[in-house]
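Now for one record:
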Amino acid sequence: MLIRLLRLLVVLALVAAFAAYVWPTRFRYDHISVEGDFCPVRIDRFNGDADMLVPDEGWVPVEGRADDTGAPTAAGAAW
């Protein structure tokens, strides 16, 4: 009886760990239009940082543009 309970607890712990750390992956993937070309973009679900995949450079941070008030806007409004 005790062994069955321990097995159940281990299975539940593994399912909970999978649900917390693997299933909702860290990055959400999208794309951005740059000069008519589409580039993959990954967005970190934990802190909201975005990186763009650039050939020969790899993943580079996407920098936002500032509007007239100086507040940053989303880089690449064509998402």
